[in-house]
Amino acid sequence: MPGLWIPLEVVGALLLLVLLLGCSVVARRRWLSRGTGTFDCSLRTTEGSLGKGWALGVARYEEDRVDWFRVFGVSPRPSRVLRRGDLLVQGRRHPHGPEAFAVLAGAVILRCRDRGQFVELAMSEQASTGFASWLEAAPPGQNVSVA
Fold first, then answer.
1. Going by C-beta distance under 8 Å and a sequence separation of 6 or more, which residues neighbour residue 94?
2. Residue 40 forms beta bridges with which residues?
3. How far apart, in whole angstroms, are the C-alpha atoms of residue 47 and residue 54?
4. Residues 69-97: pLDDT tens digits?
5. Which of 26, 84, 109, 133 is 20 to 30 A from 127, comparing alpha carbons?
């Protein structure tokens, strides 16, 4: 028989692998969202290209940092850690052009510096208010600035 023939066991194993991967992503999302202090937050670290470089994620408040996790990942470790003392919010804007399709609907974008590096965070209006409150609630002596 000409052509490529794949045994049924291989197809079944691949389907099982895809199903397990999907279940692990869903289980991880539920684990990250347990309790309080989590919010949907897209993150971008590339400047200058509207609509490009955004990654969907979930952020979780910790005592002195925000841990950011990719939505479609399986690692229990955060992809990015934003420490309160290292983060400077430089501006706030609404998405425009193709960027409006790259982030969640109704998002506000915060342009920040994290240890001198460019980073943008897109989150809901409510989450941005909470984020600003969290930054401003820094212990005395920490230099925190919100634009």
1. 107, 108, 109
2. 58
3. 11
4. 998 877 888 999 999 999 999 999 999 88
5. 26
